[in-house]
């Protein structure tokens, strides 16, 4: 069998710059193992540019960073059918927690070289008219979009602490958002039109490091998991934080949790959205989210 050609796409800015110290380790691990090169990103968006080029000259791509790095690599290489590996050296590394090897950097290295891959679903998102992205792990509009924005802006709080700090910062002055939501499930269509505290659609189970936002999610089931927290008084918030940490919010009467093949959301006012922790500002109008079954090959 021919040796597989690997491109490792290394984001030194991941984990608020702490990933940079991993570079000698990564280069050492990679050297002499297979036909592999390490390419270091130089700016935000560069992981996608490297991935696009590498599709022509590689058999496998490995995203070395957090969920944002993986998000860029997946969007840039969509349609190439190249398997993608993950070396989780970001702050949260949420998607890898749903895959077999958990968040371990050391365990994921051999997984990348095993040649064993499996297919998982992707979320496809049309927004602001003609804008389009795929997400791997999760999407949030409103509350969790603002949290992702705060995490990006805050430089002093690193790792999962950054997500906890952002959670409470966003809560101050937060009011539930008006949303019209249409959820299409395999056997039903459900519509709601009321203020929503938190809205997410997930392919993976975890978000923000520790929050079990979609505890029933299976990234290979051909469906996305929808979790909507209806309007709640802010005083009840702490109780819901604990429920989201445990994944028990799905049994709460104020939460809608279901599997869907597509979700259409309409928001009248400009809002923040995140996909895999990447922030998209000034989102307004219709957002069309749908599953693309088995669209991504991952090493696991
Ligand atoms: N060389 C670079 N300089 C500045 N920013 C970069 C560079 N390379 C990539 N980025 C940006 O760094 C951001 C953070 O990357 P990533 O999401 O992988 O790490 P993280 O936020 O620590 O992890 P997680 O999303 O799992 O919490 C991304 O938005 C990406 O576009």
Largest sheet: 9 strands, antiparallel
Strand content: 35-45%
Global Rg: 19 Å
Q: What structural class results from the helix and strand content?
A: alpha+beta
Average pLDDT, all residues: 93
Low-confidence stretches: none
Question: Any idea what the CATH architecture of the largest domain is?
Answer: Sandwich
Q: State the helix count.
A: 8
Fraction of residues in H or I helices: 25-40%
In the residues, how many domains can be counted?
2
Shape, principal axes of CA atoms:
globular
CATH topology value of the largest domain: Tumour Suppressor Smad4
Order of helices and strands: EHEHEHEHHEEEHHEEEHEEE
Distance between termini? 20 Å
Cofactors, ions and other ligands in the entry: adenosine-5'-triphosphate
Give the total of beta strands.
Answer: 13
Identify the CATH class of the largest domain.
Answer: Mainly Beta
